[in-house]
UniProtKB/TrEMBL annotation:
Domain DUF3817 residue range list: 12-99
Source taxon at top rank: Bacteria
Topology class, membrane: Multi-pass membrane protein
Sorted UniProt keywords: Cell membrane, Membrane, Transmembrane, Transmembrane helix
Main location, first listed in the record: membrane
Protein name (database record): DUF3817 domain-containing protein
Coiled coil: none
Amino acid sequence: MTDSARLAPAGRVFAIVAFVEAATWAGLLLGMLLKYGTGTTDLGVWLFGRLHGAAFLLYVVVAVGAGVRLRWPLWALLVALVAAVPPLATLPVEVWFRRRGLLSAR
């Protein structure tokens, strides 16, 4: 049985949304580099700013839902929510939660 097969449905959704949130962060960072670093275009900030805003809000909703559904301890829910703020932090948190079994059915 693979690792992803053992994930609860809420854990699988959390893992996917954590990746999407990090990917949109990366796009926004690239967009900021192009806009402020090279001065070539602001299209990346325009596009990924919107996408990341939506992904951020979705991540917060999914994290709270997964925390309730999977009965995370309060510290785990707080870590998941704080991870949405620094760039790309949702990826290591998702890996850590997966290894600790927080994304699996109890």
